[in-house]
Amino acid sequence: MNDSDRLRAVRVRTRRRMVFSLLVLTLYFSFVLNWTEAGAFLARPLGGTQVTGSLVMFVALILLFIGLELIFLWFYRREGSGDE
Amino acid sequence: MSSVHELLRKGFAALMPLSMALSPVAFAAAPGPVGEVSQQALNPVAIGMFLLFVLVTLLITWWAARRTRSSGDFYNAGGQISGLQNGAAIAGDFMSAASFLGITGLIFLGGFDGLVLALGAFSAWPLMLFLLARRVRNLGRFTFIDVVSERLERTRIRLVAISGTLTVVILYLIAQMVGAGKLIQLLFGLPYEVAVIAVSALVLAYVTFGGMLATTWVQIVKAILLLTGVTVCAVLVMYHAGFSFDTLLVEATAAHPRGDAILRAGQIFDDPVQVTTTLVAMLFGTLGLPHILMRLYTVPDMVQAKRSAFYASLFMGYFYLALIVLGFGSVMLLYGNPEFFEPGGGLVGGGNMASIHLASAVGGDVLTGFMSAVTFATILAVVAGLTVSGAAAISHDLYAEVMCKGQPDPARELFLTRVTTVTIGVIAVVLGILFQDENVAFIATMPMVVAASVNFPLLFLSLFWSGLTTRGAVIGAVLGLVSSVVLIVIGPQVWVSVLGFEAPLFPYDYPALFTLPLALAACWLFSVTDRSTRGTKDRANYHALLLRSEFGDAASSAADGGEAVAGAPAAGGRV
Which residue ranges does UniProt annotate as crossing the membrane (chain A) (predicted)? Predict the structure, then answer.
């Protein structure tokens, strides 16, 4: 791989890093919705239980972030770059 | 119970600044909102289990000491730790006593809002994997300062970054030591000074003789113990709730003075900006913590570095999910049980003891003793990580790289490292004792804000922005540091709680929402307007750094025109 190929690969990887990071940041700060009028729907219990949308959101965010990490690592493995 | 309700409202303002720093001091340095902190009776089970932990960790140290022969061994365990081991060690380093005691205590008091801190602490790890793990591992050798000084003017940027690191480490250390003294006083019935000296002596033994290798294994053992304890508690709580999460919540809301309001946001925080600035501090502060970043160098390569971040996420994700069960379990089982409350209505030992009382409620003396010992182990693991990081900042970053221009005498450097470690231990004891009666809430807040406003901007921009120059980086970092300190001083924690003024000049405990953008903007402005020769060189250096950050040393050889890059990554490939 010559220098310009490497730079192209770096650009692709950097773009990917930014997309994943922006996704995490957007989801992360959406948690603030719980403290706003716009997020009032999250306070409601779901399906006749005591479980609220807020609690589901917390659990879902943690699981989603772990899922995103797995996808991110999978991209590197699929690239066959030999590093993951 | 009505007094609990009253205190709940009045006490949050005092509790929150403390709790958010995720340091034990947060929950022990000041009286909790539900009951005064009081010393507990001597717990022989806890002491027995703790002595067993000490014995095991000292054996680990003896084993590690025979393998620690160079400064490289001391700083990064010779880079021999696997991704899984390092992930567990990172989790052990990061899951402080406050995560266990504090977040559970906050859920006990205010329900859902306590989870803000859990989400903040967890969410840095995906970003660590996406943005930092690979590049930081490829570019540095022992500390993140190696990375930020890679393409900028070495002396100036190192001095600024060392200032940021030492500020974070020392403040974090004071918070940990004061918290340790108070917590151990609570859990074991030992005098404060004895507790502080015991923590420092043990940590010195680990770090001075075993370096990063011993520290790593202490953190791994602690992580395993903590996750085991939390799992046992969570299973026993679910047993009490008939293994139904809905039943757990129904019974918790029935027991809590605020009823089902604890399942919604707004019991602790009422301002979205306050939530946002807390989330910013937690997220970016974690990404700038020097003792956490240093762990990325203990693995042999970037693949293991990325795996470390992923495994750390897994362990911490599990831990914070389990805390939901523990938090609402403590509400279900403690409220309404007079055994756990003082005659005046406060929780025995203070609000931060909720998880320890929960262990007692579901597992009796044995589980209480186990969880108390785990809490002590937790403090030791965190302080050990901080001590290694502080020692590396002085002996590697300052002595070896700045004073010796990267050419130190190895034996002298290792000797200095050990002397520095002992010095840090002594300083920790002295400061821990000096600050024992002070309101140290602001000291617990500062490390996260400073890390978010100084270390993170430097690290992120040096890795991802070609336009960063030494001038921009230095001015941005200094502004980040000064603004963090000033806004914390004029904020509620110092201006009102310490200095006694009626109202703060700045309304938020965690100013990172304002100081981080300020530092980034200053870095940008003073870089783009930098017309100096040094600035031109800094920009030109980015190309080689970028390739090496992604492909390792081989790439920099190509970028340098095929010249071999010998030695450590930090020293090679400079253009």
Answer: 20-43, 55-76
Banded pLDDT at B153 (limits 50, 70, 90): very high
How far, CA to CA in Å, does B560 sit from each of A2, B136, B434, B539? 13, 20, 53, 15
pLDDT of residue B533: 95
**pLDDT at position B506:** 94
Q: What is residue B369's three-state secondary structure? A: helix
| Nearest alpha carbon to residue B452 among B291, B293, B284, B280 | B284
B386 touches B96 (CB < 8 A): no
Is B131 close to A21, i.e. CB distance below 8 A? yes
Can you give the residue ranges of every domain in chain B?
Answer: 2-64+73-435
Angle made by CA atoms B73, B79, B80, in degrees to the nearest 5: 100
pLDDT at B196 over 80: yes
Local confidence band at B36 (pLDDT 50, 70, 90 cut-offs): very low
Contact A52 B112 (CB under 8 A): yes
**Structure tokens of B161?**
């970054």
State the average pLDDT for chain B.
84
Decide if A32 and B317 are in contact by the 8 Å CB cutoff. no
Residue of A nearest to B559 (CA): A3
Half-sphere exposure of residue B11, counting CA atoms within 13 Å on the CB side?
Answer: 24
The number of helix segments (H) and strand segments (E) in chain A equals: 2, 0
Tell me the chain A residues in contact with residue B275 when contact means C-beta distances shorter than 8 Å: 31-32, 34-35
H helical segments located in B82-153: 83-94, 97, 103-110, 115-127, 133-139, 144-148
- SS3 at position A52: strand
pLDDT at B28 (0 to 100): 33
Q: Bridge-partner residues for B347, per DSSP?
A: B341
pLDDT in tens, B281-311: 999 999 999 989 999 999 998 889 999 999 9
Q: How many CA atoms lie within 13 A of B543 on its CB side?
A: 13
Pick from A14, A32, A43: CB nearest B276: A32
Give the rounded distance of the alpha carbon of B474 from its chain centre.
Answer: 25
Q: Is residue B41 packed enough to be buried (19+ CB in 10 Å), middle (13-18) or exposed (0-12)?
A: exposed
Contact yes or no for B460/B473 (Cβ under 8 A): no
Residue B9 has pLDDT above 50, yes or no: no
- Coil/strand/helix, residue B484: helix
Q: DSSP readout, B520-574?
A: HHHHHHHHHT--SHHHHHHHHTHHHHHHHHHH-HHHHHHHTTS----S-TTTS--
B322 CB within 8 Å of a chain A CB: no
The domain spans of chain A are 3-79
Give the sign of the dihedral formed by CA B392, CA B395, CA B400, CA B401: positive
CATH code that applies to domain B2-64+73-435 = 1.20.1730.10
Average pLDDT over residues B537-549: 91
**Which tokens is B224 given?**
């395993």
